[in-house]
Structure formats: C-alpha cells, structure tokens
Amino acid sequence: MIRLLMAMLLLLSTPILSAQSAIQGKPLEFKLMDNLGTKTEADFKGKYMLLAFGYTSCPDICPMTLAQINEALDKIPNDVAQNIVPVFVNIDPVNSTPETLNAYVDYFDERFVGLTGSIDSVQSLTNQLGATFGYRLDGKKLEEPKLGMMYTVYHSTLIYLIGPDSKLLDTYDYQIAPEDLANKVTEAIAPNITNEREPEKKKITSISKQVAHKRSEKACALPEGFKEAKTGFELSQIDAIKSSGKKVELLNMWALWCAPCRKELPVLHEFKKHSSEMGVITLNLADGEEKITKFFDEQKFVHLDKFTYPKMDLLRKLGGIGLPFNALFVDGKQVAFKNGIIKETESLSEYANCVAK
Q1: Same fold, 26-191 and 227-356
Q2: Among 121, 132, 148, 280, which is least packed, fewest CB within 10 Å?
Q3: 261 is in an annotated binding site
C-alpha cells in the first residue's frame, strides 16, 4: 500500500514543474488560519516562505519533508534564515484542528507555521500553485470526506519557495538533500537580503562518499525491513529512557496522532511480553505522561514503557523520517533502523538469537 501511495504521490508532483512557469509572477492570495487566528498572504509580507502541503497522520512523506526543511534552515546562514518562514498547509482539515496542527508542526521545530482551513480555501491555494490533493475511499474518489471515514489522502509533494511579495520563486523535490535545499534557497534569496553578505561555502559530503561502516564480524541477517545504521549513536545518549540491560534492544518511537503507531503497539506489547532475547523500549514523542497513561490503560498495555521525549530531533538523529520508527541496538550502539510499521516479530527473535550466539 505504501509503495502504491508513493507512486501516486510522485506522479502527482510531476506536472507541477511544467505549471510553474504559468503561475510565476502572480502573487498568491489565501485566507487560512493557524492556532492564533486567520492568516492571509499579508501576514507574510516581507518574508520568504518555504511551503509544503500535507496532513498530520501522513506516515512518511510529510514527516520527511518537514524534517528536510527544518534541517535545511539550520544550514542556511543566520542573516538569511531569519527572513524565512517554514509553512505547512494541512490538506485534511476534517481530521485536524488548528490546535492539533500546531502541535504536530511543533514536533519538528517551533519555527513552523501550520495553516489549515476549509477544503475550498485550501483548494484555492493549491490551484494557484498548480498543486493537487484529494481523497479516496474504497478505491474511489471521495468529494466530501467526513470525520470517522477511513479514507486515503493523496497530495503533491513539492516544496515551494514563495517571495516576500507572495510570488512563487522556485520549487524543490521533497527528496532533496537538506544541504542542497539550503544552498539553493540561499542562492535564490541572499542577494535580496538587506544586510547582504557573501554566503559561507559549506562543505557538502555526499552520503554515498562517506566511509562505509563495517558490519559486525558475525554476519546476522537484519530483521525484515531494517537497514544498517551509520549514525554511531549510543542508547546511553537518550536521558529520557532506561536500558533493558539486554544485549539486543529495540527502541520504538511513537505518538498518539500516528495511526500506524497505534496498530504497531499491540504487536510490540505481545513481543515484549514473551521475548527473552530482545529488550523492547517504547518512547513516545511529546504526548505527555497523562495522555500516555490513559491510552495504555484503555489498551491494557502493561508491558510497554511510558517514556516520553519532547521533540522530533531525536528521530532524525537515528535516521528516521517519520513515525512509527524503530532502531536496533547491540551492546548499546545503534546497528539498524526501520521507518514504518513492524508487522511481524519472528525476524526480530531470529536476529537476537543470532547475535547472542
């Protein structure tokens, strides 16, 4: 299903590039809202916007896009970055309020502004940018989604650079490396900044050129869906959790707003209950102990941890692009990670048994 959605999203983004020339030069007009009230293009006059479309229960592309923008902003010279406002426009207002949207974008960085509104008001903005979004239920297009419907959301995936005059300046693929996004945005707007200075040239080291980490001498097949980690991260660096003390440990990151997480937790609960080879540590991102306790009581989760961490930066440090996310540690050092839901635990047990031998 995820592969199908990815293909659909990429297809949707393709024609937007050709639409760009037709809409450049015409100022955007919109009337949306954030958690503080109504926002229009006038509220962003004099600022550059890095804008993306998405929704709060998006399992992969939206979190990845927000993480890319956030990391790029950190790489842009300060006198340029302070003129940029990162904006996330919600295209599924049925399932999000301005308040929940604000909480969602705050997971990534407090600089983000989350905008939402009626479907028609969002459609007005996407039409001006040549973007696309919609909903499907049972494989058919859904015109009027309602709360409680189990529909699928699809949308364009580009990142838009909007000028201080509300005109489109450029678009970028959501898969662009943060370093490249930072460089392109800096090149586009630095000459127009009042306190202009020569942008610092940063050395960009491609991941493909980094020195590959050696696998452990004992070649144990990684669990299904996991990839080798090259972060060098140690479990002891996370003050919010307590190690299980086992040689092999699984760190699961989740949040209440993440629907796939809620499907995955029962699987991990049963696995932790019966597994003697692998420790399982569950770490919630920013929901708070009271909400976690209420949820665990409702689900009768008595074996999972209620550890919580306030922001999404830890996710990126471990190689994550969205939730749910799982990281494998051996002797306290990260060896692998998986973006997406864990559906089976047999391969986890086999890996732990192999490492223990």
Answers
A1: yes
A2: 148
A3: no
